[in-house]
Amino acid sequence: MELIKGFVTTLVTTLIFITAIELVGPDNSMKKYLKFVMGLILVAVLLNPIVKFFSQGETVLTSIIDQYDKEIEEGINKDEAAIATQELREDSFKDNFNRNCINKLSREFKDMTFESDLDCTVDFDNMTCQINELRIGISDKGVKKVKEVKIGEEEKEIKEEDSTQKEVKDFLSDELEISKDKIVVYYL
Fold first, then answer.
1. Transmembrane ranges (predicted)?
2. Which of 21, 105, 131, 137 could disulfide-pair with 188, CB 3.0 to 4.6 Å?
3. Would you call 135 helix, strand, or coil by DSSP?
4. Structural domain containing residue 90
5. What is the pLDDT, as a whole number, of residue 161?
């Protein structure tokens, strides 16, 4: 990068110098000789990086690549990479667990659709998983009846588990060996 930056700086400086010389130069027959000399200087400036590359290009190129590798290694913090990997593994575990729950429930209760959301802490070093809560959303397949809307009246809903919610909770508790109080079943 520094080589390119140096080349561009030299080229721009040379072009400004050539333009200034042409402006100051006399308007007689000497002007064509002046342009010829300035053209030779410009060609020399353009060929300089190519000649330098052929004469010592391999060592310069390898030193630049080594310097670039060192900057990259220093730029990446290993702790951040480990944390990102840990989070990715944990997210993958949760996604797989949720998909597994949905598949098990879909096989057992064929007339319903499910949604699963797991809240857990995973320790991959000790291979343990502490499940805080498993939320399962259920809905019947097919067309649903629209609930009657009453404007101006407040309706208090008492949330009690019906038989379907209880069946789903019992099935998951037995199948996944999770305590029933950590499983929340709700309607979508």
1. 6-24, 36-55
2. 137
3. strand
4. 82-143+159-187
5. 65
Q: Give the separation between CA 108 and CA 121, rounded to whole angstroms.
A: 27
**Lookup result for tokens 């310097």:** 67
Q: How many C-beta neighbours within 10 Å does residue 180 have?
A: 11
36 and 71 assigned to the same domain: yes
Please check whether residue 88 lies inside any domain of the structure: yes
124's tokens: 């991959």
Q: Are residues 87 and 28 in the same domain?
A: no
Question: Do 101 and 176 touch, CB atoms closer than 8 A?
Answer: yes
Q: What ranges make up the beta strands (E) of 77-173? A: 112-123, 128-140
Domain boundary among 75, 98, 133: 75
Phi, psi of 31 (to 5 degrees): -60, -40
